[in-house]
Amino acid sequence: MDTTEAQSVSERVLQVLVTVARHGRPIAAREIAAQTSLPLSTVYRHLVPLKKWGLVQEHAHEALYEPGPVGVQLAWGFDHNSHLVTQAREEIDALVQRTGETVGLLVAANGQVVCLDMHESEQSLRCSFAKGRAHPLVHGASAKALLSFLPQTTRDNLIGRQLAGQPVAQERLIAQIEEIRKQRYAVSESEVDFGVWGVSAPVFAAKERLEGTITLMAPAVRVAQRHEELIRLTVAAAERISNRLQYF
Known about the structure:
It is built from nine helices and eight strands. The chain is α+β, with helices and mostly antiparallel strands. The mean pLDDT is 89.
């Protein structure tokens, strides 16, 4: 097997692993094959080493696959060692205390917005965002705040792929991106979860390298008179996190 072929095999194994991780619940091999466009026999072959190394396991009572125990170790290590998570945690906690609302830390990965951390307030909020969960990178304040500061080629490819055949939606999103880049935050209401308002501000490391975004989420009816205040506090918290990332 030459180097190029070996790399291709490795990428297919990782494709299977990522599909299992993203799914959010146990998944059948046929569904993995459908989502990855790999032959079913290839999927089964790649599941063997993933199970051996504890990255994937078979569901206890069904012929389904789910993340394995090594995933817990990876998650623990990420929580305790990620520079972004550790530098953002204090500011996010403070933002939750100041506003009384829920705040998440999210990043762009593989064409999706992924929630790395979620700090919930004592007030109720029904929201589909949760730690480890992913959503498309074109809907909602978090996605748009991230999308707006990705490299232009990456951004254009994502918009073209995720909004294929929707020229009006593409034009609308591109116009929104221009505004978000100017004001350095994005807002949305009911785009991901009905009745939920959100504001998201990007976080940068040195040389304006996008690291992620912090997003404040709340029921729209509860914060209808507080938009300006919540935007200001969220943007300020994001700027402080960016400063920490650049100097620590």
